[in-house]
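User: Fold this; tokens only.

Assistant: Input:
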Amino acid sequence: MTMGEIADPVQLKDEGNKHFQAGEIDKAIECYTKAIKFSKDKKALAVIYRNRSACFLKKVRILYTLQAYIKHILFQH
């Protein structure tokens, strides 16, 4: 079953979790976003939103890390 075929929010969340653990942040965000669309349970939605927020936080950290590394390279030369 591919992500495009999944309509169960729990399965989508679990798939997102796998992508997150693998470092595939964009794929995880996609899964969590789809899970939000299909979920009706408020507690499940809270977890899914939290997971998606962790993805966004990780993306920001990656950007800041890249920015810091670029500055490091620029100031080295």
